[in-house]
## 1
Amino acid sequence: MNLNTVRYIIGTLLIVLGIAMIPSLAWSIYYNDGSINAFLYSTAASIGAGFLFRMKAVLSKDLGIREGFLIVTLGWLMASVFGALPFVFCKAVDTFIDGFFEAVSGFTTTGATIMTNIEALPRGILFCRSFTHWLGGMGIIVLFLAILPGVGAGGFHMFRAEVPGPSVSKLSSKITHTAKTLWYIYVGLSVLQTVLLLFAGLDLFDSLTHTFGTVATGGFSTKGLSIGAFNNPAVEIIILVFMTLSGINFSLYYYLLRRQWDRVYNDEELKFYLGVIVAATLLIAWNIRGFIPSKVDLLRTSAFQVVSIMTTTGYATANFDLWPALSKMILLLLMFFGGCAGSTGGAMKQIRVMILAKYCGRELVQTLHPKAVVPIKIGGKSVPDDVLRNLLAFSFIYIALFVLGSLFIASLGQDMITSISSVAATLGNIGPGFGGVGPESTFKEIPQVGKLVLSFLMLMGRLELFTVILCFTPRFWQEVRINQRSAHIVG
Amino acid sequence: MNLNTVRYIIGTLLIVLGIAMIPSLAWSIYYNDGSINAFLYSTAASIGAGFLFRMKAVLSKDLGIREGFLIVTLGWLMASVFGALPFVFCKAVDTFIDGFFEAVSGFTTTGATIMTNIEALPRGILFCRSFTHWLGGMGIIVLFLAILPGVGAGGFHMFRAEVPGPSVSKLSSKITHTAKTLWYIYVGLSVLQTVLLLFAGLDLFDSLTHTFGTVATGGFSTKGLSIGAFNNPAVEIIILVFMTLSGINFSLYYYLLRRQWDRVYNDEELKFYLGVIVAATLLIAWNIRGFIPSKVDLLRTSAFQVVSIMTTTGYATANFDLWPALSKMILLLLMFFGGCAGSTGGAMKQIRVMILAKYCGRELVQTLHPKAVVPIKIGGKSVPDDVLRNLLAFSFIYIALFVLGSLFIASLGQDMITSISSVAATLGNIGPGFGGVGPESTFKEIPQVGKLVLSFLMLMGRLELFTVILCFTPRFWQEVRINQRSAHIVG
């Protein structure tokens, strides 16, 4: 294990994080909202800790799969620990765990909050919350790879560990170039949405914060009633459209820019994703038709919650916890679908659900023809066996974590709906659930140990399970020691 | 498609079913309970229909995989249709669908009932309900293979389609011999339990009916409050032990009789099964410790519901719908585990859950060592790839049916807990669920179309999904036609 390089990169990450707090500081100075000191201390602590980490550490290109996993897991953990500081220093939260939960929820683009009176929070803190979404959406490590040259081949492991989805389409042979391209697209989408929200009547502060929450599929709002508070159909539609766009594989935008229309047009995952949105919207609209008299409002409200939940954003324009069981169960199901691979959306991802369905269909055919060899194809190409194997295991581990997590939250005394939906909503990086954690409630009432477990579920969900789980297995560390020992003997 | 043989076998099955109604007739004559005519008509209708089916049909040994699937699906459907007749004729149910639901629930050993006042039903009807459990438990087709010689190789497809679990251990090279052995063990367990229940103080009628419900992991009782009505700890313990025994692979009893102790001792699935029972019992006992003061009663009550739900029996000695969320969620989870392969228990089966867990563990190892070849072993033997593939697809289809079924029941206006648990309880052949279908409620209030869908889920669950699903795919019938045409051309 090349701990020197791990320390170097984590340290640099903390320095970057400290610098990234400066925009929030600027807003708190502009509004003079009383959180100035909190940001000064947090920035200093983060940068200081960064230099401590980097002490005597050097960057080498000798990065293996283990170093990659450790850097990503530790990087996100440390970012959340230091990201919690502004909340703690300005006393927006009662305990450090509450601050940590809020920071993890921000970076992982979950959007689950423990803040009960959001409008009373300092402006700088609100900006900071939303900005963590934006940093976490495309991936702080990906950002890092784009900025920091010379990480070399090991960077690919980190990149793969952080980019959502079962397979990574390298847009270019150089990982740095791919990372940069993704960030350009991300910034482009963000600028476009901010401008549109300004035109729709929001001020710059609300436009920026809600753009961060949308393009990152995060869900933190500056209002307690989320997007519903604006009562502005134009804002709802802009956010609806950009949530949909942010749930699409960002590679497709790259192909669009290069005018490779057919690659976009023939994308199976995109068709599946849009199909699910339309089907779920119509079903829920039918189910809640008694609640909303106007057909236009009905469709917009239904589509907004469907897209918000499925892309794992978590914004709301209605209290869907009051809807009939069918609508709630459809939303609960969509919590598992998530965005497309390579988007900023979380959960299992559309392509995994698609391939699972194809896998089951193939088995029906093979039961009748035991000796036939039937490949599973996506976009005309066979899915390789190792990708398939990983995808199946991923899905079962995802379901197992959901089940075990729900049982744990229930063991703390929460009811069944709250337990189930709080875990589905954090593991899938969505945000609100049902019952005690519904769209008009918060996670504040969950016991502290429950918040810690939910924080880890958010991290696991964001980093595609394996990365985080492996760092906590004895085997991961055992083999490191064996390798080092044998390296020593050989050396 | 050899429809001649299909007709012959289905016809014979209906004749056997008609004869199997005679014991129920005997009880209704003995108690003179007013259901004598209902049984006379039903027996006549069943035997009459049987001869109609067999008209001009001959038994040939030319049975393929398709014929096997069709015979099993159609056989169980027809048995349920004619099994509904006694309920309809004696007016124990309001509609034919209600009767069909009750008969399917009986044959599939589900034990979900629509009868609201069980104690008021004629004795013959109560016996008949429980007797359908007993016939369905080990499999009416397996019984058939044991009785009827000369079905030949095609019998294996039927056998495999009906025996629970991912792989069939042929106890002998002759399928007839295996079927007979399984039935001998089944009869042996039944006689033993009946005698013990007689000693514990039940009369012959209650001993027999509850033995049928236990060894078949069915769950129909002659009391509205199920086993709780007897208020007899000895009866509870006898039924607890025999439920546990009935959830074990029956092959192990065969090995025991042949004194192959090590094959039983080393059985991984058995250890896993017993481990899950102990763990779940302790967890629930801890969770409900406030409800039951005596520690002995607490453990017995907890173990009884755990074993009853997990073996998919469905008897109850407590209204577990009133328990805290954690206990209910553990029971809901166990609804998916089910019995061991080759037992009379339903749901996914212990071995599938075990192999899934090993599959996920292997993937974690392979993420660190992408090029390693790590086989999945059960009892020291590698699980073949095609078994693994089928098992993974089975699990996803099971989950998909659960999700789609729950959404459908919710679309009929049922609440979330009722929708989810009614589907889990029927697909897994358990019986009672939570909420509207809790242990002290019935399925009567589910709308008629919902009862039909739940009936099909029971059939699919009992026949291990693929058999039934394939019979309803266009491809199954398309290829039949193509095969027949090409056979015609070649001929």
## 2
Amino acid sequence: MSAITRTVSILGVTGSIGRSTVDVIEQARAQGGAISVEAITAGQNIAALAEACRRLRPRFAAVADAAQINEVRAALSGLDVEVGAGASALEEAGARPADWVMSAIVGAAGLAPTLAAVRRGAAVAIANKECLICAGPLMLRAAAESGAKLLPVDSEHNAIFQVLTHPAHVERLTLTASGGPFRTWTLEAMAAARPDQAVAHPNWSMGAKISVDSATLMNKGLELIEASYLFEMPEERIGVLIHPQSIVHSLVHYEDGSVLGQLSSPDMRTPIAHALAWPERIAVSTNRLDLAEIGGLTFAQPDLRRFPALGLAREALRAGPARVAALSAANEIAVEAFLGGRIRFLDISRIVEEAMAALEGTEAGLIAKTPSSFGEVAAVDQAAREAARRIAGSLAAA
Amino acid sequence: MSAITRTVSILGVTGSIGRSTVDVIEQARAQGGAISVEAITAGQNIAALAEACRRLRPRFAAVADAAQINEVRAALSGLDVEVGAGASALEEAGARPADWVMSAIVGAAGLAPTLAAVRRGAAVAIANKECLICAGPLMLRAAAESGAKLLPVDSEHNAIFQVLTHPAHVERLTLTASGGPFRTWTLEAMAAARPDQAVAHPNWSMGAKISVDSATLMNKGLELIEASYLFEMPEERIGVLIHPQSIVHSLVHYEDGSVLGQLSSPDMRTPIAHALAWPERIAVSTNRLDLAEIGGLTFAQPDLRRFPALGLAREALRAGPARVAALSAANEIAVEAFLGGRIRFLDISRIVEEAMAALEGTEAGLIAKTPSSFGEVAAVDQAAREAARRIAGSLAAA
């Protein structure tokens, strides 16, 4: 064991990743780590933000909604913390001087605060999907310019990052996928799958949207895109392997025939601790992996006929960043329609596919361009959502 | 791909590891690697030595037997190579100025040439078991003094070495073991096992002695000892896991819950290429790992009742280096007696156990000491062989 010294901020401290980050920081402090906290943010849960302030003693705390400013002030009074509210306060949280920033705000609200941290050259732990899916090239360019280090927290990307000892000698990457709740279902059964069946993820407990993405494998498709951006690896050199036990989190294949992998019990504190301590390591208490107890690990090729989302994601990656942002936006609308009971499970990928085709027709100029600002990303996002809503509406009416 | 520059020597060029090393060197040269060969050695196979000289163009070539000097001269005439024969010539091969030395001479004959390479601070790829089992502390001390780097070539140790990114943060190591041909046999069936059944290794083609060691799991016990020396890890922090597919070659468990492993198809060219290119990597043609094709990997705790050799090795490691050398020597005699049809399979471990007990009685002083020279190792070795022969004789007569 060795102690680390860090000044950290946590963007999104009250969600699942944020709470695990607080746990890891407290464990690091208990080992003698000198971790001071610059800023933390929350969405709407002011009670949880106040609790985090009591545990972490940050200098600055912010909530997303500007209208909550007085409520936050009241809840945090006596805690000796500066208080902010609204989009500019979230951005300030990212901009304030922390060496290490956890980017765990869910959704598009995470983009500006994360970019603020990246622009000043911090080590930024990326748990927010939108940062790479909607704005990957923007983030990477900003990181290259400022010298910021992007530390992936997703278990798959963190696994690759842990064993990427020789980036110049990689032959290919393999992302593992649990296969989701419909791994063994027939196409016919999947056609009739209900939302409650789709959100029952076998290995991880997650929100409804990401659970459905895991059921369609769109989640893995989006992770494939993130891996391509993060590790500068072309689409055709990233494979996906169905691995229902979720123990081998991903693999790096080297040109000498060696395949390096990271394994662990499913526990997000492991990748968070890895990102926090990087380039060192710290001890963190988790359920330790016991392969003899698990007994067997299995692997299979994904079935692209039953899980077309994976193919759609590969196409979007090949087509470019605007198409990727459009894919993600159309998928959000389709999943929402499925969770709302308006369309069937297999319609999700169908809507995404048709929305992409529609944009290629009506918005070809927009889709061909690499967005150079959040404004351009937002325009693509908007067009994709409209197309997806239109298609979902016609399917629901049919 | 990138090209490496090395001056190399190969101690034991005609055996399985030596031949694979030649193959890897030729592949590295084909990629533009500037690899010149200083010295190569052979046991008795002069034709194979001549063939290696034609392929590698070394400056010096030696055979083990001094009496073969004229024969070697004749075979290598016209190849523009200095020629030597006998123990001093082998040692000279290790002493000559190569940056990188493959130590692949089988048995005790490899000790002096390897030590010569270690003493002058070379990077030494260790494929010879005796270097660590009989003289581990000696080799490690010499390496520490000269700055030599020991590069493990055994697939298990090489796997650990590849993922030992944070040595100060390791919780424990796991060596994987195929379980050998008797993995699923009952104790009763093992009692009646014949030599031809013991040498039928499921995954690797190896010599008879090491195949029997794989059947008793003594091989894994010896590897556990080597791992303890090489990675400075106490016995109780090294586990053994039965993994019949021999795909995951070993694992390093970190204090953050991450377990890093190296996987590959069974092909010694991978660890040899890793050692040759270290700290870089080079491309080498092997059967690439396809986990979807393999389908499943299984893991189980070893059964110490059926495989007592593993416990004997742990005891020897705890007792110290002289006991380790004695264990290995007694095991050689016992395996020889089994292969000669004079004792039964389960007698192998029994002989080793009883030989250790006998030495604790009659040679307690010798066994308690850490050998500080090859002479002291040889005395322990001699005493252990005598004790084992005596016990094997009485079992054979019974």
